[in-house]
Amino acid sequence: MVKVKVVERPPADLVVQSWLPELWKGMKVSGRHFFVNLLTQKGIVTSQYPEVKRAYPPRFRGKHRLMRREDGSVRCVACFMCSTACPADCISIVAGQRDDENEKFPVTFEVDFIKCVFCGMCEEACPCDAIRLDSGVHRAPAYTRKEELNGKEDLLSLGSLSVARQGGEFK
Amino acid sequence: MPTLTIDGREITVEPGTRIIEAADRLGIDIPRFCYHPGLPVAGNCRMCLVDTNRSPKPVASCWDPCQDGHVVVTNSPRVLEARRAVLEYILLNHPVDCPICDQAGECDLQDLYFAHDHQPSRHPFHKHHKDKARVLGPQIIYDAERCINCTRCIRVCEEVAKAPQLVQVQRGERAYIDVFPGTQLDHPYSMCTADVCPVGALTTRDFRFKCRAWLTHGIQTVCGECSRGCGIRADVYRNAVQRLVPRHNPDVNQYWACDAGRLAYHRFETGRVSAVRIGGAAADYAKGVRDVAEALPGADARGVVVVLTPWMTCEDVGAVVAAVRSAAPGATFAVGGAAPGIQDDILVRADKNPNRNGVAKVLADLGVTPVALDAVLSQAPSLGALIVCGAEQAKAEALAGALAAVPLSIVLAALEGPLTAAARFVFPTTSPYEADGTWVNESGVTQRVRRAVEPVGDAKGFEVWASDLADRLGTPLAARDRAIGGNP
Q1: Does B200 touch chain A (CB under 8 A)?
Q2: CATH number (domain holding residue B337)
Q3: Interchain CB distance below 8 Å, A167 and B132
Q4: Can you give the residue range of the structural domain that contains B394?
Q5: pLDDT tens by residue, A46-97
Q6: Is the Cβ–Cβ distance between B103 and B200 less than 8 Å?
Q7: Cis bond leading into A50, ω under 30°?
Q8: Which domains does chain A have, with CATH numbers?
Q9: Of B60, B90, B120, which marks where a domain is finished?
Q10: Residue B67 burial by CB count (10 A; 0-12/13-18/19+): exposed, middle or buried?
Q11: Shortest CA distance to B18 belongs to which of B9, B6, B8?
Q12: How far apart are CA A51 and CA A63, in angstroms?
């Protein structure tokens, strides 16, 4: 049950209508905050954006990033699980062949941020811990559609090392 | 005629029928790897085990012939346990690299694992590693780790292609498929080995890593590369044909198709005519049709000749004949077509045109007696108009010369070439994967060609062009001439 405090409307008597005492009361409150903030800087709730940026919460889903293996190569094996799971159909992959045991890799890996809804399905579908949305980078608006199309290099530049076990077999 | 009971359902079959065939006829699914209805029986995978009243232990249903009074149970606990054990054994050294395997999504091993085994590997040691991505031939790449040694591919080479190029080497868990030293898998049906492969061991170089199987949708259509007209399925993703695979048609091609036919769609990926051209300059489709409709009746006095191609569907031929006749009642028709090529005694036919029979049939029905193409070429300079349908013309150079000589030259083609360079009016038409209609193959089997992908640019079927022309002439085609395949 919500407590409701009913405040009687003060009568608009001559004191109020002359506005000078009320103005004085208001200036007293503003002046107190002004000098307290100026001298002690205690209890300020605003931050000095853009010099000081607030951290996103840990589960924030930002721009995608592609993770790397220990040898620096991309972890993605171009299995298309992410683009299959994607409800917005925003991921386009062209797969290629490499000569080591990982065999398959993405030649191109494009995320169209115009289409992306940042649902995180791709991250969940990925069997290789290759795609993540934990970059903490907010998707910035762009002037052209082409700029919204982020390729493999863009996504890798946000990426870092992941040593999660790939596949399922122990080596 | 033995009568047997499978899972409580009775069936009478011809003597010699295997249990698995009888079960297939009843619609009872018995899992299998090595058995293929188009191949001789090998009986080596042991996945199709069933219980019968004639043997103390489960028997392989692909090998055991039906007997009178046989009582077969395909799903008893003992059979299910036997299958689970077989599957676990097959999966012992399997790399389980489904994310990078092209077969994932259409893999028998994957499906049956989820249906029968569904447990983590109990194999405590390191898996046995074998060759990956081994090139067996120009079309086929082999992954020895994924192979379950069902030998379907070997049997395809021996029995279907009559080219025994594959062999199984080593034994037990070390067994793998290989070509003989110094040779390669290069017979004209080599891609059928990848079709029959129940796992991802044999993959075609054409489809390898191109697209995942589950992303495609299959359109059942017909191959146009020769007059055999093999049933094929065009797998399409994002409005592009990703691969062609044979589709079972007992009257035409059984389960098979040749490599050339399956790679033919690449011809239509580049060099397409995509816009109407008048005198070499791009033009609006409606303007092109209007100009032709205005010019064609005047050309009738000197003679109008239409060179048809046996790549057109029956509906196309009917519509083009009707439309041109309404403009130029005296028009004559000739049938061109692609040059004959190689033939073998398996599927490939020498006539490289899919619908020669159908075109002849439609022309006969319409009372048209086609004139010889050479006669057309010789009288070309005196003609009023020459309309050439299709880029697949054996005498393309001669036809181009004839087109250059006539006052009104029209080409309807899907591919650029000497014809489109020589003609005044060029109309883009659909590729066989964009067309819709009917083809009649060399043995008279009438088959439906279906549109798999949307046409490029302004490309339209011959039939659509013809009915637009007829509309413009003020003599709309009857509904039956429009038939199917109208532009959406």
Answers
A1: no
A2: 3.40.50.740
A3: no
A4: 276-482
A5: 888 899 888 888 899 999 999 999 888 999 999 999 999 999 999 999 999 8
A6: yes
A7: yes
A8: 14-54 (no CATH), 65-157 (3.30.70.3270)
A9: B90
A10: middle
A11: B6
A12: 22
Positions of E strands within A68-128: 91-97, 104-112
CB distance A101–B132 less than 8 Å? yes
Query: What is the tally of structural domains in chain B?
Result: 2
Instruction: Report whether pLDDT(B134) > 60.
Output: yes
CB B423 within 8 A of CB B339: no
Distance spanning both ends of chain A, measured CA to CA: 61
Kindly determine whether residue B99 and residue A102, on different chains, have CB atoms separated by under 8 Å. no
| Best CA proximity match to B259, nearest among B202, B165, B187 | B187
Which of B98, B100, B238 to probe by mutation at the A interface, max A CB count within 10 Å?
B100
Residues of A with Cβ-Cβ distance to B100 under 8 angstroms: 77-79, 102-104
Question: Each residue of B89-118: pLDDT tens digit?
Answer: 999 999 888 888 999 999 999 999 999 888
ipTM over 0.95: no
Please check whether residue B208 touches A, CB under 8 A. yes
Question: Domain ends where: B90, B123, B155?
Answer: B90
Contacts of A167 in chain B (CB under 8 A): 96-97, 99
What is the number of residues in chain B? 488
